[in-house]
TrEMBL record:
Gene name in the database record: cobO
GO BP: cobalamin biosynthetic process
Gene3D superfamilies, A to Z: P-loop containing nucleotide triphosphate hydrolases
Record-linked NCBIfam families: cobA, PRK05986.1
Pfam families hit by this protein: CobA_CobO_BtuR
Alphabetized InterPro entries for the sequence: CblAdoTrfase_CobA, P-loop_NTPase
Keywords: Transferase
GO MF entries: ATP binding; corrinoid adenosyltransferase activity
Protein's UniProt name: Cob(I)yrinic acid a,c-diamide adenosyltransferase
EC category name: transferase
EC annotation from Swiss-Prot or TrEMBL: 2.5.1.17
Alphabetical list of SUPFAM superfamilies matching this protein: P-loop containing nucleoside triphosphate hydrolases
Length: 204
C-alpha cells in the first residue's frame, strides 16, 4: 500500500471520504511481543487527533503495571488542564473496575470480565468514546467467559465512527473474520528464551 493508497478501489458506492472515515475494528494477536504496545501506539495517534480515548485492561492482577498507563494518565491531565489532545479514561479489571468503586477480587475473574464487557457495550451504544483499546480481551473470549457471537455482533453493529483495537493471543476466528485490520505478532527471537528477565522500559 504505497503512500497509503489502496491497491483496489471497491465499487461500493461510497466516496473516498466516507471510506476514509469508516470506523476500524483492529485485532492484534499471535504469540509474539508487541500486541499491546502497538495498540497503545495507535491510541497515542488518536489522542493527538483529539479523540476521546478509553482503555479497558482485562487483567487478573492489580499488580500488573504497564508504563503506558502512567503516560496516558499524564496525557489525560494535559487535556483536562490545557485542552491538548483528547480526554483519556483507563480501566483495569484486576484492580476492580473504576466505575464500581470497589476493590477487585481474585474469586471470580469471569464475572468481572462480564461486567467489564457490559459496560463497554453500554458505552459503544451511547457512542461515549472515539477510540477503545480492549487489552488482553481475547482471553475472556477464549475461556468462554463471554459469548463470542454477542461480542462480534455488538462490535460490528456499533454506531458512529468508534474505533476499537483488541489485543491478546488466540483471537477466535469469528473475531478475525469481523475485523477490518488483523495483525499477527510472530516471535522470531526473544531475550527471555535465553533466560533474561523482563526489563524496565522494555516490558513495563
Amino acid at each position: 500500500m504505497p503512500q497509503g493508497q489502496p491497491l483496489v478501489v471497491p465499487n461500493d458506492g461510497l466516496t473516498t471520504k466516507a471510506r476514509r472515515n469508516a470506523p476500524i475494528l483492529a485485532v492484534h494477536t499471535g504469540p509474539g511481543k508487541g500486541k499491546s504496545t502497538a495498540a497503545f501506539g495507535m491510541a497515542l495517534r488518536a489522542w493527538n487527533q483529539g479523540f476521546d480515548i478509553a482503555v479497558f485492561q482485562f487483567v487478573k492482577s492489580a499488580k500488573w503495571k504497564v508504563g503506558e498507563e502512567a503516560a496516558f494518565q499524564t496525557l489525560g491531565r494535559l487535556h483536562d488542564e490545557q485542552g491538548v489532545g483528547g480526554p483519556v479514561q483507563w480501566h483495569k479489571m484486576g484492580s476492580g473496575w473504576s466505575w464500581t468503586r470497589r476493590q477487585g477480587s481474585d474469586e471470580d475473574h469471569a464475572a468481572a470480565a462480564v461486567e467489564g464487557w457490559a459496560e463497554i457495550s453500554r458505552r459503544l451504544a451511547a457512542e461515549q468514546h472515539d477510540f477503545y483499546v480492549l487489552d488482553e480481551f481475547t482471553y475472556p473470549l477464549k475461556w468462554g467467559w463471554l459469548d463470542i457471537d454477542e461480542v462480534v455482533t455488538t462490535l460490528t453493529e456499533r454506531p458512529g465512527t468508534q474505533h476499537v483495537v483488541i489485543t491478546g493471543r488466540d483471537a477466535p476466528p469469528q473475531l478475525l473474520d469481523a475485523a477490518d485490520l488483523v495483525t499477527e505478532m510472530t516471535k522470531v527471537k526473544h531475550p527471555m528464551d535465553a533466560g533474561r528477565k523482563g526489563q524496565r522500559g522494555i516490558e513495563w
